[in-house]
Amino acid sequence: MRKTVKMPSMANVGAGQTATLNCPVGLTYDVISLEYSGKKADTTTDITLDDLQNIEVRVNGKAIQSFKDGLEVDRINQYHGRGAAAGILNLWFVRPEMATLTDQRLTALGTRDVQTLSVHVDGESTLASLSLSAKAVQSEPQLMGAITKIKAFPASFAVSGEVEIDNIPRNGGAMIGAIHLFKSDISNVEMEVNSNKAFDATKAYAEEMQSRYNKTPQTANATHIDYLLEGDLKQALDTRGVQDMRIRPTLDTSGSVRAVVEYIDGFAGI
After folding, report:
1. Which residues contact 183 (CB under 8 A, 6 or more apart)?
2. Could you report the per-residue pLDDT of 59-80, keeping only the tens digit for each?
3. Under CATH, which architecture does the 147-265 domain have?
């Protein structure tokens, strides 16, 4: 039976503090929802998603999903068509955008063999007030198997034009489902794997292609490389045997690029 439950109270909730949610273990987590409210420093303006910072999901003390802020979580969710609502931020473990129920539930977060599961959120330091609580959708107990890991790899470039990102981890045979390049003005992106082109498209073409599969490109904030457009895990980029992997975005202006990678991997991998 699938059930929706209220999580324990979060500790250390406040401006400039790291709020912690210690989740009961044993059952399987489909999604954890953070309900948030509060006021910015002016005491009249409601907080926004970027006031929830450095969000991490940790299993046995190891971060399996890391996000810059709530906006990053929300934009990835919106890209995949998972929906959004004011005051609620969802951390997904199942993948409802996949084509089959088996693939949707493959990455559900089983905790039968887990000692600790926790969520950590920093409150922006100047907030006047912050309230956080959590609910979860849980299903029957199972061991942790394949999980979705979210890892970020920021880079900064002093020049515009074509640049290269070559530090994306690929060891352990993890599969890559998607890569989100957070910068507003990337006009083209190439990806080369073992000296072979795996992706080469203008931003406009990539977004048109992704929209065919009911994705919602976050055009003002990111450019996406997505290997799971048909919702088929067999089409993910398998990193076994990959010796060299390079992403070459074309930047209209110099600046930072934050590459956020969605891996499908075991706990002990990347």
Report:
1. 222, 223, 249, 251, 255, 256, 257, 258
2. 999 999 999 999 999 999 999 9
3. Sandwich (2.60)
